[in-house]
Amino acid sequence: MKNEIVSQITTECPWRDTLLWYDRLDSTNTYAKKLAQEGAPHGTVVVAERQTGGRGRMGRSFLSPAGGVYLSVILRPACPPENLMHLTCAAAVAGCKAVEKACGVCPDIKWTNDLVFRGKKLGGILTELMLSGSGVADCAIIGIGINCQKPTDFPPELQETVTSLAEISDTCCTAEVLTAKLVESLYEMAQQLFSHKSTIMDEYRRHCITLGKEIKVISGEHITYGTALDLDADGGLLVRFSDGSEKLVTSGEVSVRGMYGYL
Ligand code: BTN
Hints:
The protein is α+β, with helices and mostly antiparallel strands.
């Protein structure tokens, strides 16, 4: 499996030499964090065939049976954390490019970190920062999971809201090819993260299905409704709320009306 992935990554991508492959991990993000604490360098890629404790945003779990793609990469950007606000957006764009290159289908993005296809969740991104004592970002872990399993393999409660590449395309690419394209896209993204920030954010905007939609913003116990207007330069979501006020939303849960069962 590892050789099948590495052989599909262009020789121009140095991350093909720093790819670690496991048949089972609890979470590639958790393992990548451990490696980072032990000093693993920028560009260390961790891939697992399945995860037993895949993690999503806001403490959720991410179902990770064999057949899907589960990958984390360690970045060492050596900059203040506020310079990395757009990292999840950049990773989402890289994820879309990889899916398109590998499988010929182009996903949308639901703000901030979901890859979606025809309104159903295809995958997700979990970005985690580790700060050094001086407050600089010692490392960032980008984790991406993409569903490839047969739709009948989803638990019944997810069937309406989740999709997979196997459901989208009969001639779906293999997990190995998709993993290879993800490594290439993430490498390119890391190279351009600061120098091409506005181009990356323009691409994100083009993919972002949330813009122009009615949304529900859940922040703790607090639920508000509004319309997603635009993104700021760092990927914050500008929202016009039902009371007429406009505010930037940078965290919390944002549901899009008509998606994932929000009617
Ligand atoms: C989300 O949907 O909220 C994000 C899901 C992120 C899942 C990926 S799979 C690889 C990496 N390891 C994890 O435990 N999570 C991320």
